[in-house]
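Data availability (excerpt). The following record was deposited with the supplementary files.
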Amino acid sequence: MNQTNFFSKIFFLLYALFFIPVPKGYAWSRSTSSSCTQRELQSQKNREEQRAIIQSLYLTPAQHKAIRKLHRFFLKKLEVIQKQQKIERMKLRQELQKSSPNKVQIYKLTVILGQLHCKRLDLMIQARLDLNEKILTPAQLEKLNQEENKLISGK
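Predicted structure:
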Protein backbone atom coordinates (compact mmCIF):
# COMPACT_ATOMS: atom_id res chain seq x y z
CA MET A 1 0.00 0.00 0.00
CA ASN A 2 1.47 3.34 -0.93
CA GLN A 3 1.81 6.07 1.67
CA THR A 4 -0.65 8.45 -0.04
CA ASN A 5 -3.38 5.81 -0.07
CA PHE A 6 -2.65 4.98 3.57
CA PHE A 7 -2.93 8.62 4.68
CA SER A 8 -6.03 9.09 2.55
CA LYS A 9 -7.75 6.21 4.33
CA ILE A 10 -6.60 7.49 7.73
CA PHE A 11 -7.94 10.95 6.93
CA PHE A 12 -11.31 9.57 5.89
CA LEU A 13 -11.45 7.43 9.00
CA LEU A 14 -10.62 10.35 11.26
CA TYR A 15 -13.27 12.38 9.52
CA ALA A 16 -15.69 9.48 9.98
CA LEU A 17 -15.27 9.61 13.70
CA PHE A 18 -16.97 12.97 13.68
CA PHE A 19 -19.62 12.06 11.17
CA ILE A 20 -23.00 11.42 12.72
CA PRO A 21 -25.04 8.79 10.86
CA VAL A 22 -28.28 9.87 9.26
CA PRO A 23 -31.40 7.78 8.60
CA LYS A 24 -31.44 5.39 5.67
CA GLY A 25 -32.82 6.90 2.52
CA TYR A 26 -30.80 10.08 2.96
CA ALA A 27 -28.59 11.58 0.24
CA TRP A 28 -25.91 8.91 -0.13
CA SER A 29 -28.14 5.89 0.37
CA ARG A 30 -29.95 6.58 -2.90
CA SER A 31 -29.03 4.38 -5.82
CA THR A 32 -26.09 5.64 -7.79
CA SER A 33 -26.82 6.97 -11.23
CA SER A 34 -24.58 6.67 -14.24
CA SER A 35 -23.80 10.38 -13.96
CA CYS A 36 -21.85 9.85 -10.71
CA THR A 37 -18.14 10.34 -11.03
CA GLN A 38 -15.62 7.84 -9.72
CA ARG A 39 -14.74 10.27 -6.92
CA GLU A 40 -18.40 10.55 -5.88
CA LEU A 41 -18.75 6.77 -5.87
CA GLN A 42 -15.61 6.39 -3.74
CA SER A 43 -16.87 9.09 -1.40
CA GLN A 44 -20.21 7.32 -1.06
CA LYS A 45 -18.44 4.02 -0.33
CA ASN A 46 -16.26 5.71 2.31
CA ARG A 47 -19.30 7.24 4.03
CA GLU A 48 -21.03 3.87 4.13
CA GLU A 49 -17.91 2.27 5.64
CA GLN A 50 -17.69 5.11 8.16
CA ARG A 51 -21.34 4.72 9.12
CA ALA A 52 -20.84 1.00 9.67
CA ILE A 53 -17.81 1.61 11.89
CA ILE A 54 -19.66 4.17 14.01
CA GLN A 55 -22.69 1.92 14.36
CA SER A 56 -20.46 -0.96 15.44
CA LEU A 57 -19.28 1.11 18.43
CA TYR A 58 -22.80 1.25 19.98
CA LEU A 59 -22.42 4.81 21.21
CA THR A 60 -24.66 6.14 23.98
CA PRO A 61 -26.76 9.27 23.40
CA ALA A 62 -24.32 11.23 25.58
CA GLN A 63 -21.42 10.01 23.45
CA HIS A 64 -23.26 10.98 20.25
CA LYS A 65 -23.83 14.44 21.70
CA ALA A 66 -20.17 14.78 22.70
CA ILE A 67 -19.03 13.66 19.25
CA ARG A 68 -21.36 16.14 17.55
CA LYS A 69 -19.96 18.92 19.74
CA LEU A 70 -16.38 17.87 18.96
CA HIS A 71 -17.27 17.56 15.27
CA ARG A 72 -18.70 21.10 15.13
CA PHE A 73 -15.60 22.47 16.86
CA PHE A 74 -13.37 20.51 14.48
CA LEU A 75 -15.23 21.73 11.39
CA LYS A 76 -15.10 25.39 12.48
CA LYS A 77 -11.34 25.23 12.97
CA LEU A 78 -10.87 23.19 9.79
CA GLU A 79 -12.88 25.68 7.75
CA VAL A 80 -10.63 28.55 8.86
CA ILE A 81 -7.51 26.61 7.89
CA GLN A 82 -8.98 25.56 4.53
CA LYS A 83 -9.88 29.16 3.68
CA GLN A 84 -6.34 30.24 4.49
CA GLN A 85 -4.94 27.41 2.36
CA LYS A 86 -7.13 28.40 -0.57
CA ILE A 87 -5.95 32.02 -0.36
CA GLU A 88 -2.30 31.02 -0.20
CA ARG A 89 -2.68 28.55 -3.10
CA MET A 90 -4.26 31.30 -5.20
CA LYS A 91 -1.36 33.62 -4.37
CA LEU A 92 1.11 30.88 -5.32
CA ARG A 93 -0.71 30.19 -8.59
CA GLN A 94 -0.68 33.89 -9.44
CA GLU A 95 3.01 34.14 -8.69
CA LEU A 96 3.81 31.09 -10.82
CA GLN A 97 1.84 32.50 -13.75
CA LYS A 98 3.94 35.64 -13.89
CA SER A 99 6.46 35.92 -16.70
CA SER A 100 9.28 36.16 -14.12
CA PRO A 101 8.08 34.69 -10.82
CA ASN A 102 9.77 35.79 -7.62
CA LYS A 103 11.50 32.70 -6.19
CA VAL A 104 11.64 34.17 -2.69
CA GLN A 105 7.89 34.83 -2.73
CA ILE A 106 7.25 31.30 -4.04
CA TYR A 107 9.37 29.90 -1.20
CA LYS A 108 7.50 31.99 1.40
CA LEU A 109 4.13 30.86 0.07
CA THR A 110 5.14 27.19 0.09
CA VAL A 111 6.37 27.57 3.67
CA ILE A 112 3.04 29.11 4.66
CA LEU A 113 1.16 26.29 2.90
CA GLY A 114 3.31 23.75 4.74
CA GLN A 115 2.55 25.41 8.07
CA LEU A 116 -1.16 25.39 7.32
CA HIS A 117 -0.97 21.72 6.41
CA CYS A 118 0.75 21.04 9.75
CA LYS A 119 -1.99 22.97 11.57
CA ARG A 120 -4.58 20.85 9.81
CA LEU A 121 -2.84 17.63 10.82
CA ASP A 122 -2.42 18.87 14.40
CA LEU A 123 -6.14 19.63 14.53
CA MET A 124 -7.00 16.15 13.25
CA ILE A 125 -4.67 14.51 15.75
CA GLN A 126 -6.02 16.58 18.64
CA ALA A 127 -9.59 15.71 17.67
CA ARG A 128 -8.68 12.02 17.61
CA LEU A 129 -6.95 12.24 20.98
CA ASP A 130 -9.99 14.00 22.45
CA LEU A 131 -12.21 11.27 21.07
CA ASN A 132 -9.96 8.54 22.48
CA GLU A 133 -9.45 10.11 25.90
CA LYS A 134 -12.73 11.89 26.61
CA ILE A 135 -15.53 10.14 24.73
CA LEU A 136 -14.90 6.47 23.94
CA THR A 137 -14.67 3.70 26.50
CA PRO A 138 -11.62 1.40 26.35
CA ALA A 139 -13.75 -1.34 24.76
CA GLN A 140 -15.08 1.06 22.11
CA LEU A 141 -11.57 2.31 21.43
CA GLU A 142 -10.35 -1.25 20.95
CA LYS A 143 -13.24 -1.96 18.57
CA LEU A 144 -12.50 1.25 16.65
CA ASN A 145 -8.83 0.29 16.30
CA GLN A 146 -9.82 -3.16 15.00
CA GLU A 147 -12.19 -1.64 12.45
CA GLU A 148 -9.54 0.87 11.36
CA ASN A 149 -7.01 -1.90 10.86
CA LYS A 150 -9.51 -3.86 8.76
CA LEU A 151 -10.26 -0.81 6.64
CA ILE A 152 -6.60 0.07 6.13
CA SER A 153 -5.54 -3.48 5.34
CA GLY A 154 -8.46 -3.91 2.94
CA LYS A 155 -9.85 -7.00 4.63
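Summary of structural features: The mean pLDDT is 81.
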